[in-house]
Amino acid sequence: MSAPATSSLSGQAAAAFAAYRSGETGRMSELVSLLTPALWAVARSAGLDSAKAEDVVQSAWEALVRKADTIDDPQAVFAWLLTTTRRAAWRAAGARREEPLVEDSPAPTPTPETIVLDEDRGLRLWRHVKALSPRCQALIRVIAFAPTPDYAAISAALGMPVGSIGPTRGRCLAALRAALADDPAWSLS
């Protein structure tokens, strides 16, 4: 595996995270300084006040320290933190509600067959993503976990002009669709 590119925010984060996991514990401070503003923006965009947003960002960093060894690819750390923060913010925002808008009904329990098929489908999909260009891989990793992509944040994270994100995204997704269409084992059903 080649060394991570350090020109983008995502590349700088990957380099700091890889160094942290290699034993340079001081690099975690660099990672925190680098990514906290983006995580803060994600938490605040969920409608949290400053105190709740601070708690959510702190919990994301704690989760990273606990689970650092489970993140195989340092290039994924930024997307992992964004996703962790977003989910924690949603939970915190949901906890503020006094009454649920809709009664929760229990989700149907998936069958063992469904679980195996879903896991296989996910592995196959990400195997095809890994076959794409590094630029497409990075972009898809970031947009895959964002319900509404923030192009300014993506631009900062990937070092890509805002105006090229949409067209690049379209080309990357078209390449992924073509790869999946050529895979006889791929199926959405």
TrEMBL record:
Annotated keywords: DNA-binding, Sigma factor, Transcription, Transcription regulation
Xref: InterPro entries: RNA_pol_sigma-70-like, RNA_pol_sigma-70_dom, RNA_pol_sigma70_r2, RNA_pol_sigma_r2, WH-like_DNA-bd_sf
GO molecular function, one term: DNA binding
Keyword Transcription regulation in annotation: yes
Phylogenetic placement of the source organism: Bacteria, Bacillati, Actinomycetota, Actinomycetes, Propionibacteriales
NCBIfam families in alphabetical order: sigma70-ECF
Domain of life of the native organism: Bacteria
Protein name: Uncharacterized protein
Entry annotated with the keyword NAD: no
SUPFAM superfamilies, per database record: Sigma2 domain of RNA polymerase sigma factors
